[in-house]
Every structure is written in structure tokens, then in C-alpha cells.
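Sequence dictates fold. Below is an illustrative record:

_____
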Amino acid sequence: MKIKVSKLKHHPRNQDIYTLSSIEDLSESISQVGLLQPLIINQNFEIISGNRRFVSIKKLGWKEVEIEQRTITEKEVEFLLIHYNKQRVKTFREFLNEYQVLKRYYEIGQGKRTDLTFVSPNKGLNGRDKVSEQIGISSSQLGRLLFIYKHQPNHIDLLDKGILTVNQSYLQASREVKESDSRKETKNNNSKPIPNTWRFYQKSSDNMSELNDGEIQTIYTSPPYWNKRLYSENGGIGNEKTSEEFVNNLSNHFNDCWRVLNNKGSFFLNMGDTFYNGNLQNIPHRVVLKLQEKGWILRNTIIWSKTNPKPSSSKSNLTPSYEFIFHLTKTTDYDYYRTLTPLNEKTKPSLPPRHRSTNGKYSDTVSPYLPNIKGKNMGDYWNEDIVRTSVANQKLEIDGEHPAPFPEQIVTLPILQTSREGETILDPFCGSGTVGRVCENLNRSFVGYDLIKFV
């Protein structure tokens, strides 16, 4: 029978489950071949089957449409909506919406819906299998979708846009769940307080006979900078006559650091440069090159951007506003616990780049870039947004004031990234004891060396 299109309306539950997509294509098809099946409506003239066709014929300006009217109870509505859409090409979001509806009826212990004639007995199937059979998707694929929806719900839209495949999303979600479980296990294992030890030796660190081979997990230090100030009345590191002499002395001074650092450990060296006769000496990198010649591996050159650098009165060059923090290791197989920083609000997923192969065809085998919602891997440029530090003079709770302290935040990150609670940290030029205070806060043991007792 035919009725006026103006009398019809969508069933409100339909829009909770499905989107009215691809209307343009459907409208063109209907205009060419007509309506192949009547719309199915209930006694309230609400459409149970044919909501997309209904939108299309209104778009085409139809006044009347062929319908089949049925008396449908409320408990049948959701089943029939899903039943009549079984052959439809659905989005992953729509599959999940269908699952949320049907799981209430098919969960284990809820029994079978024998009152609905189109529902098969589903003998021997569990709840998820029963639902997957009804909505037209494999049980394993549905299981992966549910896992993704639970742990990475933002991926569902990416799946529907074709940016991700179900397998790609599932693998990433699984990996992050495993990492999270591992962190929880580690936290539980370290729940007992570990007594912190603080050892200080008032002597040069060129010979640290008090320490055993491989005893240290992380070294963090900032040695005297060359020709900046008189660090000791007796000369020593930083007071050499030439920068060449300083570079050689300092690189050799670190020989015993190699011995006491274990093979899984890291060495962080914070250094600034010096102008001499108007010529910037490039001392930090010259020291690191010497260390590389001795076998050290340079993993990162971190730029520490100072938020409040020392003012410069020079009219012929820029004010130095940064220092280097070099991350060195003995091997490439070292302990590292990466730090994530917040994503920029403009960071969006992107499709994989297309690569032309030798035969001239394009390949899309490269996985798409998918930002981690927890953040991105920390970069090697550390500004106030990352460490929120200032190089303003610090009032230290010690006898007197050390001439060149550095802020605790730039020490905290490297220690967290390369050591665990209870492990031992070394500062061979410990000065005001900043590294030691950080270790105390982070529940690490600390060993410090210095010629002057500031701690």
C-alpha cells in the first residue's frame, strides 16, 4: 500500500544505532531504478526498515511511497531494527552500537529470545558469539573491536575513516595495556620504602676507589666550566691556562666514571661554553668528542633552554641562553624509561605516506602515524614547558652558597629516565648537593665527590 511521505517519521531508536550515510549515492540509485523494497513501519508510522531510503525519497521530492505496516511491540523494536539492517554495509561504530543493544538479551545467563521468530536458537554459542551471528561479523573481529573500544575508544573513528585497520589498532592497544600492567607491577614491587643512603667523599673523583666496579646506575654531573671563576685556590679542573688543557684534563678525569658505571647505566654531563678573547671555545662538544674517542656512546645532545639566563652587556653578539646536557652510555643496551610530554592540541592522526616502487606502482604498506593519547616522546629541547626551571640565584640551605648551582628539575628527568628506586646515582662534582637532594626525593641512593664540602 502507498501512503503520504509526510505522515512518516524515523523511529527514535534508529538514530541511536545507525548513521544516515551515503544518501547522495542512494538517492541517485532510487531515481534510476525506483524503490525496490517497501518501507516497513509500525502502527505509529515510525520507520523500522528503510530510514536511509526515507531520507532519499524526501530529497527526491516524492509525495507517496510504498510501505508495509506491522504491529510491533516495544520489546521487538530493537531486534527488528538490527535484523532489517543485517545485510547493510555498516561502520565499526554501528557494529558496536548493535552489540550494546543485543548483549542485554544474549549475555550468558539471560536465556534465548524464543519469542522473536527471526532469532535463531544459537545452540552451543556463548553470548558474544550469538550477538556476532546476529549482526553479521565474526566473533573474533567483534572481540577485537570491543577490546579497542575499551582501551582506545578514540580509535573507532579512525577505523571508520580508514586511517587505521582493526589489526593495527588492536596491536597498539594491546601493547599499551601490557606496558600499563608492567608499570603497575613495578609500582607494587617497589611499594616498600627503600632506605636511602647518602655518601659524600671530600676528595677528587678522578680516583673513586671507594666504589666497586659497575656499582653506579646513573651519573649526573656539572663539572666546573673553564675560565669562569676560581673554583679552588690550588688550581684544578676549570682553572687551566688554555681550553685545550681543560678539555684534556676533564675528559681524562672521567676515566674512573667508566669503571664504576654499570653496562646498563647512563652518564649525563651538563656543560656550558666560554668566550676567550671574543672567541667562543666550543668546549662542551670538544669534551664529548674526547669521551667518544675513549669509547663512550653519545645517545642525545639535550638543549637546556634557560628561562632566566645571565644578562649580557655585549653589543656584538647574542646573549647565551642555553647549555648542553649530553647523554652518554657504555653500550646501546642500557636501561631507559621514556618520558611522555602532552600532545599539542593540533596534533592529529595522519594517513601513511605513499611510496612509489620500482615498477611505478604505489605502496601503502607503511603504517599511519597515530599519536599516543597519553603524550609524545620527549624531545631533546628542554624549555620551561618541559622542566619549568629558572636559573635565578637559588637560596641554598647550606653553609654558604655554592657559586654555580643548577635547578633540581633538570636532574629529576634524567634520573627518572635511566634508573629505578633503590639504585645508586653518582655526582663526581657534587657541589651544592642538588643531585643528592633529588635522589632523596626519588628514593635513590647517592654518592657525591667534591674538593669543597658544601653538603
Notes: Residues 2-133 form a domain with the Conserved hypothetical protein from pyrococcus furiosus pfu- 392566-001, ParB domain fold (CATH 3.90.1530.30). Residues 108-118, 189-195, 388-405 have pLDDT under 50 and may be disordered.
